Amino acid sequence: LPFTVMPGASQTLRLDTLWHGKGAVRPTLTLETVANPVWYAVDALPTLMEGQPLSANDWATRLYTLSLSQYIASSCPAVCEAVTRAATGDSTLPALRVDLFDASTPWLKAADRERLRRQGLLELFDADAYAAHRATALDQLRALQTAEGAWPWFRGMRPSLHTTLEVVTLLVRN
Q1: Which of 17, 21, 136, 160, by CA, is between 20 and 30 Å from 174?
Q2: 114 touches 89 (CB < 8 A)
Q3: Which whole number is the average pLDDT over 40-46?
């Protein structure tokens, strides 16, 4: 439920309707505030790089994500500094893991996911990692491209107009 409150304004939200659905056993609510909503877009970039890319769309999306991260890195150095601080900051997670919690607790799992996400974000802004990932993505797209210049959805399939348009659109945005 995203909402924006401008300076000097107020907003009222009805939250009582959130937990009336079937299956709402242990309802919880997390409220996140951020001074700059653009950070959510930057923070989501590693999600686009998750998983093992197999299709032409996956590789084109990966290439686009890499290009976008490098554009942000070159045009907004403050973002790179913030990412570096967030990813390399001192963490109490190892102490918590040893002293207080079993490794299967949801808090440690969430903290591990957050740590991996931050490391992924840091890697997106690293020039050497960018070059390596970009070369791989381009090689994979070349390997998937047919002699006619089109792309199939997956290796071994017939070329697809839809997939080709998706790949070309993402390549043009680079």
Answers
A1: 160
A2: no
A3: 85
Residue-wise pLDDT for 85-130, tens only, equals 877 764 444 444 444 555 566 777 777 777 788 888 888 888 899 9
Written as six digits, the tokens of 23 are 């299956």
Q: What tokens were used for 1?
A: 């439920």
Query: Which pair of tokens denotes residue 70?
Result: 């490098």
Bridge partners, residue 152, by sequence: 159
Return the structure tokens found at 136.
């791989």
pLDDT tens digits, 53-93: 889 999 999 999 999 999 988 888 888 888 888 777 644 44
Do 69 and 45 form a contact (C-beta atoms < 8 A)?
Answer: yes
CA angle 67, 73, 78 (to 5 degrees): 155
Residue position matching structure tokens 């309802």: 27
Alpha-carbon torsion, ordered 41, 43, 44, 49, to 10 deg: 130
Residues 6+ apart with CB under 8 A from 68: 45
Q: Which residues contact 29 (CB under 8 A, 6 or more apart)?
A: 15, 18
The Cα 42–Cα 72 span in angstroms is 8
- pTM for the whole thing? 0.69
